[in-house]
Every structure is written in structure tokens, then in C-alpha cells.
Amino acid sequence: MPSSVLVLGSGGREHAIAWALYRNEHTIYVSPGNGGSKFTQIDLNLDDERDICSWCEANGVIHVIVGPEALLEKDIVNRIHNINPAIRVFGPTKDAAQLEISKIYAKEFMKQNDVATADYYVINKDTEESAIEDIIRKKCSNWQNGIVVKMDGLASGKGVTLTNNTEDAIEEVKKMQKAGNGQVLVEERLNGIELSALAFCDGKVAIRMPLVKDHKRLLEGDKGPNTGGMGVVGPIFVSNQIDRQIDEIFEKTLNGMRDRKTPYKGVLYAGLMVVDGTVYVLEFNCRFGDPETQVLMPLLDDDLLRIVNSCWDENLSHTQVRWFDSAYACAVVVAANDYPYSSDKGTPITISQNNDNAIIFHAGTKKNGDKLETNGGRIFCVTGMAPNIDDARKNALRKIESIEFEGKQFRKDIGMADLNEITGAANCASYSSSGVSIEQGNEFVDKIKRHIQSTLIEGTEQIGGFGAQIDLNRLGLGLNGELVVGMDGVGTKIEVASTVGDYSQVGNDLVAMCANDVLCHAARPIAFLDYFVCGKLELKMAEQLVASICEACNAIKCAVVGGETAEMPQVYGEKQWDLAGCMIAVRQFDWPKLPSDATCEGDKIIGLLSSGVHSNGFSLIRQILTANQIDYSTPVPWDNDQNDTIGENWYKRNKM
PANTHER family attached here (predicted)? Predict the structure, then answer.
């Protein structure tokens, strides 16, 4: 149901949030907004919660989304809530936002809650010069990759300096002591693969957004000074091992914040570094990232406000968030000439053409009459969309050509790096050289998402892992019953599938074998897990298998909740593979049950007409065919009206 939403802020992030909300027909207000906002701009005093509340009450607005971190530091969430609790402000309280407001607080929190992070020391504003030199020259001397100096407190993404030597580090600490709150953090520099992980949080549960990769340095080739971000690409796919570590980071963080009586509600953004298969947290941000949001919102195939309300209602455990399949986004920041050292104001801007494959998100722009002018450091963020990252980058760059203002600068290499190197292994090349393709595995996961999502039923919304939780109460089954588990395969029928070159049936057979097994116990199938192993992953074949599994599960209203795909060269030949499944079912104690205890010798057996030999006896069948030199392409001597070959006839799917 469409609602009215007030978005606080003026950057590219806020434009992207408003744009995402507008796609779902919500009425959008922005304050203060910028020169590109097609939404109603409201002139509010964002330092005065009474002004915000009065306007919301007068205009029937109960949803407020906070963009910039500076407002969180001023405790805008609690201040509005204290005046009007009916207004739903999306963002963490000031106490919860300490994870970003104070880098020192965040470091100590991570240490206490066993969240991996770089080694560090804290230098206070009253630390003497000799003590600073002692810390950096002696205590930091074993940091092989160098020293990072960070200003404690908010610095708009620019309070971080990567120093080249101890003398530079000492000078940078002295400089930062005189700025901000006087406290400085020095930490070990980590070298690895940097990632941005954002999640919707309701205080207890985190639902992660797709991983993205930010580019902080001003110049191409990751050179030049650090900035608030010059571009982002996503989604980025990682190994299961890396993925599990990221999940644990969010779990530990939410648990730790809850233990401190400061539950975290809002978007939590973890800046990560992957080093030799271990994930370290560089920093936390307590809001939508900028420019990460300009990539994530175009990838979101869902109503953002619905997700926001689930966070507010602490209902994320029962919420599924949808993202576009097979879509990539590349966001390139267009900045002023002297960014990040100074901003640019009043320079005329022209935008000459349109491109449906790219979106212009305004940031540092303003309207002067009917003229568009610069009004900041980062002027635009242009997001290209495509089925792959390279084309998404090209779409963004083509769109940037249509933007003209004096002194514009941007990076042309955002998204050009090999983003598939993130495998969680100490030596990425060892995977491909051993015959395991991480890239194909990630592409396979992306291809099967839509098939798996189509099977989800009430109580089984978790997908993408090796298993899942099932809410029996939401299934209407409660606890007055028992679980029934069945496991089976399809035997050597897989050889028939390989011979006839058709993999669109055998997944159905696998589900049928498992479903029929639990049906013999008078149980209702509710969840299925599959195991697919091969010598070399063939994407088209594997997708056909999973699609047929999902089609069968849909037919019996059973959810595919997890599974394992294993590529095992040297153990299996390139063309060898196998398939197995596990069916989880439930039965109420009062449901009828087969009288197996009463079955005895002499009972009559009733045979029912079958559509084929299904999945039993194929080892014998194949032996008979081989002994009699009969090919699968031979027309069957029965059912002539069907014009089937032996392969087609014997490959018919099982009935369920």
C-alpha cells in the first residue's frame, strides 16, 4: 500500500533511496534534497526535531528515513521519537551509532565480541609527543604492510590516511590530534581484497544485501588520496567460507549491541578486508553507504519501505528480500576538479542526452532558477546496469559523456579489476589450476536463485545455505507430530540422462523417489535438500537439474531449502556426476498410517500400472541393452503410437 515518506539528506545516497521508494508508488518528500530531486523538496531545520515532527503531523507522514551520519550523531532518532512515537524513523539511535561515531569505540567493541579486525593502538589528545613516537616506532614496528592513521569521530569518509613510513605516521597523528576530538587511532594496514557488506537490521536479525566493492582512492589504478568513494560495483560473489564469516560478523555485532542494551535497528555497513581467506572488519558505518546505495537500490527488486517496516517491527526473521537475478551495477562518481580537498559551487552543468541503461543520481548539485549548478565535492553518481560488470561500467561511462561542467573528474577503471578473485583461498590460482572453477560456481548459484525462490513456502524463507530453519507453527503443523526423513538417489538412470543429453527430467525423479519414500510413512513433504557432485561443473546441465528439482518441489508444495554442489576433479571424471536428495516431512500423530506391523507372508500385493521403469533397475537394463547391442535411439517395440525411442521411453519421469 503506497505511503508518504520523508527522506532526510541531500546527497546521491538520499537521491537513490528516494528513487527506490518512488518505484513502488510511494509519495516522496526530501529535505533538503538537491538539484536533481524530482520529488517534493521541503525546507526543514534538520537540527530542530520539533520542526520535523510538526511538518510530518501536518502532512500525514509517519515514515522518516535518515541519510547522513551527522544526524544520527545528533540523536535525531530518539529526539523525534520522544516528541511523537508514532513517527517511524529508520536508523539507529545515537548510542547504537557509536559503532561509526567513534572508531575507538568500534575497535574496542570488536575486540570484546571476537570480531576479527586489524591490530591497533589508541592515542589520546593529551598523549605526549615522545609517547607517540614510542608507540609508532616500537609497538608498530612489526606491522609489515604499514600504518593507517584514523581520526576518531565522523569525518565524511576522509579522516583516514595510509602512511608510507613511521615519520609520516607520526606527523599525521600530530595533525589529527589538533582536529576532531583529539583522539587518534593507529592500526596495522591490511593488504587483501576490500568489500562492502550492508545489512538490514531489526535489533536481532540481519538480512544482508549483495556484497559490493567500493573504490576509495581518487585516481585510476587505486592511486591518490582517500575519498568518500569514487565508485562501486556489485554484486560480488564469494566462497561459502567467506560468506559464513560475514554472516558471523553481523550476528556477533547484533548480539553484542543487544548485550550493551543498545539494540541496533537500521542499515549496518561493514567495511571488510579479506586476507588469506580470513575476513577482517576495517570499520562500521551506521547507515546506507555512499556511493554503495547507488548500486544497491537499482539491484533491489522489492519495496524498500516494506523492508524498513520489517526492521521497525522486528520482523526480519519472517521477511524475504528480493534482488534482481543476473543483473550487475557499476556506479561511477563524477567529482569536482579539486575534490577531495575542496568543493565546487556555482559552476553551470548541462546534461545532453538520455540512456535507459544508466541512472544519474545527483549529489552536489542545486537549482539556480531553471539552471543546474555544482554545489559540493562529489557532484553526481552515475549507475550503469547490465547482465555483466563490464557492460554496466561501459553504460555508466557513456552516460557520463552526456554530463558537462568545467573541471569534472571521474575514474574510468571502476569495475575493470578481476572481481572473481575472491575465493577465500590463500592462493586463488590453486583452485582453477586444480580443476575447480570458483567463477562458474558463483555463476551457477546466480542462475539457480530464481528456481529455488519459486519453491519457498510459509515458514521456509531462508535460502542459499546448506540448510535452513523451518517454522512448523507457521506451516500450521505445531508440535503435535513428528518429523519423517527420507534420503535417496536415482541410481544409474543418470547414465541414461547423460546418453540422451537431457537433464530436465532426472531432478523430478530424485524428488519423486524421496517424496514417495516419506509418503509411505503417511507424511507430508515440506523441505528438500539436494547433493550434486561432478568432475567438472557444466552450467547448462546443472541448471537443468536444479530447475527440474524445483519444478517437482513446486508440484508437491515443498521448499528447496538448501543443498551442496561439489566439483571434485580427480575423484570424478569430467563427464561423471551423481545426484542425491534428502526429504524432510511431517506427520501429525492422528494421521492414518500404513499397517506395516500387520504385514506378513501370504498377503496379496496389488500392482499399479506405471509410466515406466522409473529409477529402479537401470543397472540391469543397461546391461541387457549392452549385451544385445541395442542403442538408446532404437524405436521401442511397444507403444508404437508414441514414436518413442528406448532412451525417451525409459527416461520418462517418475510419478509422485
Answer: TRIFUNCTIONAL PURINE BIOSYNTHETIC PROTEIN ADENOSINE-3, TRIFUNCTIONAL PURINE BIOSYNTHETIC PROTEIN ADENOSINE-3-RELATED
Q: Which residue has the cell 547482465?
A: 387
The whole-number pLDDT of residue 444 equals 61
Q: φ, ψ for residue 41 (rounded to 5)?
A: -95, 130
Pairing of strands 63-66, 231-236: unpaired
- 311, 399: one domain: no
Cα 489–chain centre separation: 32
Residues 244-256: tens digit of each pLDDT = 999 999 999 999 9
Domain limits for position 129: 119-188
Separation of alpha carbons 534 and 572, rounded Å: 6
The number of beta carbons lying within 10 Å of the beta carbon of residue 370 is 5
Q: Cβ of 350: how many Cβ atoms within 10 Å?
A: 10
Instruction: Say yes or no to pLDDT of 136 above 90.
Output: no
pLDDT at 325: 85
Q: How many domains does the chain have?
A: 5
The verdict on 159 and 57 lying in the same domain is: no
Grid cell of 39 as nine digits: 520529488
Q: What is the pLDDT of residue 635?
A: 82
Clarify whether residues 220 and 359 are in a common domain: no
Among residues 598, 613, 636, the one where a domain terminates is 598
Q: What predicted TM-score, i.e. pTM, was given to this entire model?
A: 0.66
Ordered alpha helix ranges (H), 334-470: 389-400, 429-433, 438-453
d(CA 130, CA 117): 27
Helix residue ranges per DSSP H, 389-519: 389-400, 429-433, 438-453, 493-500, 506-519
Grid cell 537394463 — which residue? 621
Residue from 111, 110, 90 nearest 100 by CA: 110
Task: For the chain, give the number of residues.
Answer: 656
Domain boundary among the residues 279, 300, 325 is at 325
132 Cβ contact partners less than 8 Å away, ≥ 6 residues apart: 123, 170, 173, 174
Sequence-distant (≥ 6) Cβ neighbours of residue 126 within 8 angstroms: 182
